[in-house]
Write a structure and sequence with these properties.
Helix content is 57%, strand content 3%. The chain is mainly α and 244 residues long. It has two domains: 161 residues, Ferritin, CATH 1.20.1260; 71 residues, no CATH class. The chain has a two-stranded antiparallel ribbon. The radius of gyration is 24 Å and the shape is globular.
Length: 244
């Protein structure tokens, strides 16, 4: 079980992502996973270096190769223990331009690792947020093997209760499918209790606008969305009510 202090650390990291512009819980978990994985790679490489020094033998399992990458960056700069000391702008540049391309290729072509990491993407929007999260993750004790499992169980619990932070985004292709299945007309009424940010409403409205000669006024539409969102009430709006 996670201690109260560790839970507080995870909560602080989670809140940092939210306040920094990443609102999707899945994306938060994804970026935390990549960063913790980078930290783990550096730990494993350090263990191999220590083993090599004690035995007086070459490193058997080298994760970060010697020399520079194809962009001319020293591979040692891609290690967690190195880039965590960079200034935010430099850290952001290294992680986005060097670390993640390396992360996608480190397993070699054709490996299971390469298959699962081929789409690894870095989505942290600002250097300040990256520096803050790296500093906070660096303080999380990961020596206990059980901590990793408890940590992810706790974060998955946050996703399960994501209603406390906001709703999941509905992908556009699913919105399109729902609109095609329901085929709304200007005489239909849309009823949605949670409403969310109402971004999905533009799709059926535009569908009605394209299928009828009537003119639809987006200003009244936007006003309806804003009122519904702020009041968090049931919205029952006939499509024709959005007409100019």
């Amino acid at each position: 079980m996670l201690t109260g202090e560790l839970r507080s650390q995870v909560d602080a990291i989670w809140n940092a992502f939210w306040s920094g512009g990443i609102a999707n819980p899945i994306e938060v978990l994804e970026q935390i996973t990549y960063l913790l994985f980078l930290r783990r790679l550096d730990d494993l490489h350090s263990l191999e270096e220590n083993k090599s020094m004690r035995l007086g033998k070459p490193i058997e399992r080298r994760i970060f190769p010697p020399g520079k990458d194809e962009k001319g960056r020293d591979h040692n700069d891609l290690r967690w223990s190195r880039f965590k000391h960079f200034v935010p702008a430099e850290m952001y540049k290294v992680v986005s331009e060097n670390v993640f391309p390396f992360l996608r290729e480190v397993g070699g072509d054709g490996s299971t690792y390469a298959h699962h990491m081929k789409d690894a993407r870095f989505t942290i929007p600002t250097p300040a947020l990256l520096a803050k999260v790296v500093d906070m993750l660096d303080q999380v004790p990961m020596d206990d093997r059980d901590t990793k499992g408890d940590l992810y169980e706790y974060m998955l619990g946050k996703i399960a209760s994501a209603g406390q932070n906001g709703q999941f985004r509905t992908p556009r292709h699913l919105i399109s499918l729902m609109v095609e299945l329901t085929a709304p007309t200007p005489k239909d009424v849309i009823c949605d209790r949670p409403v969310a940010h109402a971004a999905s409403w533009s799709w059926p409205v535009n569908t009605c606008a394209s299928s009828t000669p009537r003119s639809f006024g987006m200003p009244s539409c936007a006003s309806t969305f804003t009122t519904a969102c702020s009041m968090a009430t049931i919205l029952t709006t006939p499509c024709c009510a959005l007409a100019a």
